[in-house]
Amino acid sequence: MTRPLGAPGHMGVDYEERVDFARLRDYRLGRARAALAGSECGAFLLFDFYNIRYTTHTWIGGALGDKMIRYALLAGDRDPVLWDFGSAVKHHKAYSPWVPEENYRAGFLGFRGAVAPSVGLMRDAVAEIKSLLVEAGVADQPVGVDIVEPPFLFEMERQGLRVVDAQQLMLDARVIKSPDEITLLTQAAAMVDGVYQGIVDRLKPGIRENEVVAYANKRLYEMGSDQVEAVNAISGERCNPHPHNFTDRLVRPGDQAFFDIIHSYNGYRTCYYRTFSVGSSTPAQRDAYRQAREWMDRGIAGIRAGVGTDEVAALLPRAEDFGFGSEMEAFGLQFAHGLGLGLHERPIISRLNSMKEPMELEVGMVFALETYCPASDGYSAARIEEEIVITEHGPEVITLFPAQELFVANPY
Fold it and tell me: CA-to-CA distance for 390 and 204, rounded, in angstroms?
């Protein structure tokens, strides 16, 4: 008998094997090293904070996570070097011993231009990086960079470094999840299972969309989330077209409402939609939901190792089938995206891109499949999303809050 993927809890214990974080760090750094060794690059210079976490196993989120001031260098076969913000360097030295102490360094590049490049911070940083490339014997080889501020790129070129794209290589490295990563993704989904129970208990006329968002944030942080990236809350006439945000709208009797909960547990993310009707449902709402579920089930049934992403995309409805003029206009409503440290990893499966450049699905890929169907009443809509792990035995869904039929919250 095949056991379901586990969500064992937050604590490490002596009586069960759970997430082995040392094994997780070895796996991720090994994948990044293999990507580097198989490329034309002598080094990767990483600014994408998911790539930094993947290779150095350190994290600063919140206000500093996206300011382009943290960067890591993976050069040759050497240990990664991380430049970090202020006192975080001392913290890493004290609490994150898997990187050699001397490889934790202070760095600052200017808060995305708030300190002008003319001050010389970028010039000095590139000179330091170049000296490490010389020490590693790879200064004459291209440097792979994932994302970068234009002045930093210009400075690298001015100092004689040839820059190529490393983001494609790092996304390839991250695409196959280890058992530890899959456990963390499953745990993150299990937390959202519980939040949805709380949402349906509260989903009554008079509650505002922003109150649901506040509840979801509070509950997730109480449960151990390390970042709530976004909570979409959409109800009533706002459901169609999908606005991808929340407001202070009051939920009313008979509304259709859908939510997307995006958070991370130990860095590993969810993207998890559910649709409900409030108190009662109409035939139009139920019909839209049945159609969205049919598209979802058809997509899941076609997912297995060895199948091309173009074959899965072909199972999803065309843009014209649900009221859009092109696949670009409809993008994001009927598609799948990889999940991991990032919200949108590989594979991206849609009619927009997969027919042009398909990739083969493999065991260990984890992604979220999303469907959307507008209702015939002109304003309601159904939105469903399932997170799927490709196993040796086929697809396994790890988002478990009931979604086979339209869920009526607090029926009258």
Answer: 37
Question: Tell me, what's the pLDDT at 1?
Answer: 61
Residues 376 and 247 in one domain: yes
CATH code of the domain covering residue 284: 3.90.230.10
Structure tokens at 216: 């979801």
Range of the domain at 222: 179-409
Residue 81: φ, ψ to 5°: -115, 130
Has residue 197 been placed in a domain?
Answer: yes
- The DSSP annotation for 67-90 comes to SS--EEEEETTSPPEEEE-TTHHH
Task: Indicate the number of domains in the chain.
Answer: 2
In a domain, 7, yes or no: no
Asked if residue 306 and residue 208 are part of one domain, the reply reads yes
**Cα torsion at 127, 128, 132, 134 (round to 10°)?**
20
- Candidates 407, 405, 374; CA nearest to 284 is 374
pLDDT per position as a tens digit, 73-113: 999 889 999 999 999 999 999 999 999 999 999 999 999 99
**Rounded distance between C-alpha atoms, residue 378 and residue 374, angstroms:** 7
User: Do residues 147 and 236 share a domain?
Assistant: no
pLDDT at 128 over 90: yes
Closest CA to 31 of 70, 61, 74, 72: 74
Q: Comparing C-alpha atoms, which of 220, 283, 287, 280 is closest to residue 255? A: 280
Contact by Cβ (8 Å): 395, 386: no
Q: Are residues 78 and 132 in the same domain?
A: yes
258 & 284 share domain: yes
- Closest-CA residue to 155 (of 133, 129, 192, 136): 129
